[in-house]
Specification:
- The complex is a heterodimer.
- Chain A is an alpha+beta fold.
- Helix content of chain A is 71%, strand content 8%.
- In chain A, a hairpin with a 2-residue loop joins strand 4 (314-316) and strand 5 (319-321).
- In chain A, helix 1 (2-67) runs antiparallel to helix 2 (73-96).
- The two termini of chain A are 75 Å apart.
- Chain B has helices spanning 3-29, 83-88, 112-119, 140-144; strands spanning 37-38, 64-68, 78-81, 91-96, 105-110, 123-130, 135-139, 149-151, 153-154, 157-158, 168-170, 191-199.
- The radius of gyration of chain B is 22 Å and the shape is elongated.
- Chain B has two domains: 1-30; 36-199, Alpha-Beta Complex (Sulfite Oxidase, Chain A, domain 2), CATH 3.90.420.10.
- At the A-B interface, helix 1 and helix 2 of A face helix 1 of B.
Chain lengths: 378, 200
């Protein structure tokens, strides 16, 4: 079941990015097609209005020729038909082009022109003689219409700042913003992945550097630090702390009790010892305390504080577990900053402390002095 | 999934996506690579003389003039079609929607290629002009597959000047699955003059 969930997560991670890419592509295509469509509409609109204007002009011209008796009624009628054929085209543009609706008064203007043209139909279609005054009035009204249309065409439609252009821009900007949104989503997704990766990396680093049971630093970390300090030849001290009779606690009270002891001891290390140094767990019940200076008095002071706190036995259920430590220390300068030397000497100091059951830290120098004493005495 | 396999999968997926993307983009940006219309680069109309429109004022005997440029292989010919002559040619009818109507309308008339073949079977480029001085140049071979007709009748009755007649070049965009508005420039209405510009 867990495997299925893992696979599902895997698939989800790997599919989301291509999905985002597709989304971006689709919205980009939307922008492109919107742009082309807007251009097409604009072209058509300008075309149909301009041609309407032209036909009105031709009609006026033909009427004037007729009035001057330089043209026949047939030709005038024909021109009238041509003018009429223009109007449905403009009206269909008005219906289909969404941006034309935003131009104030255009629809009414075109409707008025159409009405005016239709009004003359009976006069043109009848067999009677065409009334010349009526014709003259008609063409002067048409002239005004033409001027209005030209004004609208120039200022509202063709002009960049006209309401038509602005409305078209608005459409284009909407589709561009959808692309922007899709790209933003992709960036957010990628950011999320990067964040998850970094967090995972941090978690793994912590896992390596810390000991999972006690929360103290791990063996690898402490030894690495020791190597660094020796290489840099920094002055430091190292204290090897060992829990006394840990094995017997485990055997008598069980491993859970042993774990509890370790955790308690570690907590006290963190509160007392980590003030001046770094504590790491290098073995089952073995700890290493690295202090980056060499004030033995201060070190002993903090250690004694620790042992004071640990004087109380630990309550485990209904049993009382006594805790006692043995500690051996050495100063790095004495060992010439040689790592193996340091470890050897701090080891022997600790075992000496254990053997004499010392409640305080046994320094390497002390040990040597103490050891030599019986020799000189005999 | 092993490391190698997943990368191969990702690579395949991305390349499939890209190919698909290019294909779609191409179709969108060049919807009609084989558009029969020829646009003149220098934007000047052919230097042919076109007949004046006044003669066509509602004259049923003179509906369409078709002639050839003397430079073509068909020589210098001219044919004047009356309404009856155009009706005499094999007619084709279809119902289609177009940009200027909200419903589909039925058009019928002779095929454009038939009319051109009457005067010059090897025609390559033709010039069409309408009564309102709109003109286009078309490649005959490319337009053949669209089966354009010179529509004379709409819904059974004759096409009037008002309805963009008397001759309207119409294409069955519905059945040929052509996207709306892509071939609008070619649908010359109030057509009255065709000239063959070049021929094989």
């Amino acid at each position: 079941m867990l495997k299925l969930a893992q696979h599902a997560r895997y698939i989800y991670q790997w599919l989301l990015v291509p999905l985002m890419l597709i989304l971006i592509y689709l919205s980009a295509m939307n922008v492109v097609s919107t742009f082309f469509l807007l251009e097409k509409y604009r072209h058509e609109t300008i075309w149909s209005l301009e041609h309407l204007n032209r036909e009105i002009e031709s009609t006026i011209h033909e009427s004037q020729l007729y009035l001057a008796q330089a043209s026949t009624i047939n030709q005038l009628r024909f021109q009238y038909e041509l003018l009429w054929s223009r109007l449905p085209v403009v009206q269909s543009s008005l219906h289909q082009d969404p941006n034309l609706k935003n131009i104030p008064g255009l629809e009414k203007m075109v409707a008025d022109v159409f009405e005016r043209v239709k009004l003359m139909e009976p006069a043109f279609m009848s067999q009677q003689e065409l009334d010349t005054t009526r014709l003259s009035q008609w063409i002067s009204a048409l002239e005004r219409d033409r001027e209005n249309l030209t004004y609208c065409l120039v200022n509202e439609i063709s002009a960049g700042s006209g309401s038509y252009s602005r409305s078209a821009w608005h459409d284009l900007l909407t589709s561009i913003s959808s692309v922007g949104l899709a790209i933003l989503l992709l960036l957010l997704l990628i950011g999320h992945f990067i964040y998850a990766l970094v967090r995972e990396q941090e978690r793994q680093r912590t896992q390596i550097d810390k000991d999972s049971l006690t929360g103290l630093y791990s063996r690898d970390f402490i030894l690495k630090k020791l190597n660094e300090l020796c290489k840099k030849q920094r002055d430091f001290c190292i204290v090897f702390i060992d829990l006394n009779k840990f094995k017997s606690i485990n055997d008598t009270y069980g491993h859970q009790a042993g774990d509890q002891v370790l955790m308690t001891v570690a907590k006290h290390f963190q509160t007392s010892l980590e003030k001046i140094g770094t504590v790491g767990r290098i073995g089952g019940d073995e700890f290493l305390w690295l202090i980056p200076h060499t004030d033995q008095a201060e070190i002993s002071y903090y250690y004694n504080q620790l042992t004071q706190h640990l004087r109380q036995p630990l309550q485990f259920g209904d049993k009382l577990l006594p805790i006692s430590l043995s500690a051996g220390a050495v100063s790095a300068a004495v060992c010439n900053y040689n790592v193996s030397h340091v470890l050897e000497q701090v080891d022997s100091s600790m075992y000496w402390a254990k053997s004499i059951q010392s409640p305080t830290i046994i320094w390497h120098g002390e040990m040597l002095n103490t050891v030599q004493l019986p020799v000189t005495m005999t | 999934m092993k490391c190698g396999k997943s990368w191969v999968l990702i690579g395949c997926l991305i390349s499939v996506l890209m190919i698909f993307g290019f294909y779609l983009t191409n179709n969108l940006i060049n919807p009609h690579k084989d558009n029969p219309m020829i646009t003149n680069a220098n934007n000047s109309p052919p230097t042919s003389l076109y007949p004046p429109t006044q003669e066509f004022a509602g004259n049923p005997d003179k509906l369409l003039i078709v002639n050839t440029d003397p430079a073509t292989s068909c020589g210098s010919k001219e044919l004047v079609f009356s309404e009856q002559q155009l009706q005499a040619l094999p007619q084709k009818a279809f119902k289609t929607k177009h940009t200027w109507a909200t419903v589909a309308q039925e058009f019928s008339g002779p095929l454009l290629t038939d009319v051109i073949r009457q005067i010059c079977p090897q025609a390559k480029e033709v010039y069409l002009r309408s009564l309102d001085q709109y003109s286009v140049t078309i490649d005959v071979k490319k337009v053949a597959k669209y089966e354009a007709i010179l529509a004379l009748k709409i819904a059974g009755r004759p096409l009037t000047v008002r309805e963009k007649g008397l001759i309207w070049l119409m294409i069955n965009t519905d059945s040929l699955n052509i996207a709306a508005r892509t071939l609008d420039n070619m649908l010359v209405w109030q057509l009255y003059y065709i000239q063959v510009l070049t021929s094989d």
